[in-house]
Amino acid sequence: MNSITNKWMFFLLIFMLVFGLVACGSENMTQAGNDTVEKSNEKVVIKIADTFPTTHLISTMGASPWIERIEELGEGKIEVEYYPAGQLGKVGSMLDNLKNKVVDISYIQQDQFEHTFPLSNIGGNLGLVNDAISGSKAYNKLVQEDLYELEYKPNGIKPLWTMLTQSNQIINSKHPVKTIEDFKGLKVQASNAMQEQLMHDWGATPVLLPGSELYSSWERGILDGTLISFLSWPGYQLDTIAKYTTVNAPLSRGNVAYFVNEEVWNSWPEEVQDAVWQASQEIVEQLPGSIVEHQEELIKQYEKETEIEFYEIPEEELQKWNEKFQSYNNEWAENLDSKGSPGTEILEKFTKYNEEFSK
What are the respective helix, strand and coil percentages of the chain, to the nearest 5? Predict the structure, then answer.
């Protein structure tokens, strides 16, 4: 009898131990499940920075609606903190800020980093692009398909979207510039090495300085003018200081590019990546056309409200300019080839992409 009782007591003890272990395991799984649900419901905060004034068209028509779209597609899971107008650093510090994760996404003015992104500066080369719409599509393709592996991935950044502005025009407060000879004696802001070389070769005095210093330098007489597209006029209040401007000069174009830190990108849930990527591709499609349309409206407004002289360069003069531009582009490519970078290959690809999107 005692033997039977002992056996029942033994089995009862085993049953209680097994039940306790199952209950604990179930509780731990429930807790882990709750933690997973709680973690998936956490908001991802994305810090985005650029150097454009909040009145600049890239900010009002590009960055701001892009950010709104990211949050909309995020459906409450994404919160964007936007730092415009150089709040987190000047243009020269933006790349380091991005690589060091001070920000998650940043505008990078690539012509300020010509040694880091030499091939990427082809977007600003002379006379290669027909218009901002086809040129932006061609450049975005080049960046995503060709330049990512060559220049961005080695620096730990991933391109989200890029665009090219309409062609820069010759704006100054001294006299109309209708021929190469008219550049002589002018002090002109240059934003990259090719512009600097062009102005030097054509008799002007190039002054390298960022857009943030454009107005104050012009006002103090350090500059007589600049090479810039009409979309930048409102942000830099150029209508209050300019007296003469071309409308058809086939000069270099501004290059707008936003990048994300790749480690940060890889840390985001897939749905966050999808939202940021979709919003970025949508702005590539929308912004160039909106900029072209708005630029036409700006010109009409300035012609009506200011005494600025808007004029065209004669067609026969433009032919001379385009012939010279070809030699500058070939020299640019050959110089990169000599340093081990595929300059000629990238020039040929970008030319091909422009032809494809211009059809």
Answer: 60, 15, 25
Whole-angstrom distance, CA of residue 262 vs CA of residue 345: 26
CB atoms within 10 A of CB 278: 13
In CATH, what number is assigned to the domain containing residue 305?
3.40.190.170
Q: How far apart, in whole angstroms, are the C-alpha atoms of residue 149 and residue 143? A: 9
Phi, psi of 227, deg, nearest 5: -115, 110
Q: Are 103 and 83 in contact (CB under 8 A)?
A: yes
Q: Assign 118 to helix, strand or coil.
A: coil
Residue 30 lies in a domain: no
Note whether residue 93 is domain-resident: yes
Would you say residue 156 lies in a domain?
A: yes
With respect to residue 5, please indicate whether it lies within any of the assigned structural domains.
Answer: no
pTM score of the predicted model = 0.82
The token duo for 9 is 């007591």
Alpha helix ranges (H) inside 185-239: 193-201, 214-219, 233-236
pLDDT tens for the 359 residues of the chain, in order: 444 445 544 444 444 444 444 444 444 444 433 343 344 568 999 999 999 989 888 999 999 999 999 999 999 999 999 999 999 999 999 999 999 999 999 999 998 898 999 999 999 899 899 899 999 999 999 999 999 999 999 999 999 999 999 999 999 999 999 999 999 999 999 987 888 999 999 999 999 988 889 999 999 999 999 999 998 898 899 999 999 999 999 988 989 999 999 999 999 999 999 999 999 999 999 999 999 999 999 999 999 999 999 999 999 999 999 999 999 999 999 999 999 999 999 999 999 999 999 98
Contact predicate 167/130, CB 8 Å: no
Give the residue numbers spanning the domain of 296: 43-358
Sheet strands side by side (includes 205-208): 205-208, 187-190, 225-228, 169-172, 244-246, 309-311
Report whether 229 contacts 253 (CB < 8 A).
Answer: yes
Question: How many Å is the maximal CA-CA distance in the chain?
Answer: 121
Split into its structural domains, the chain has a count of 1
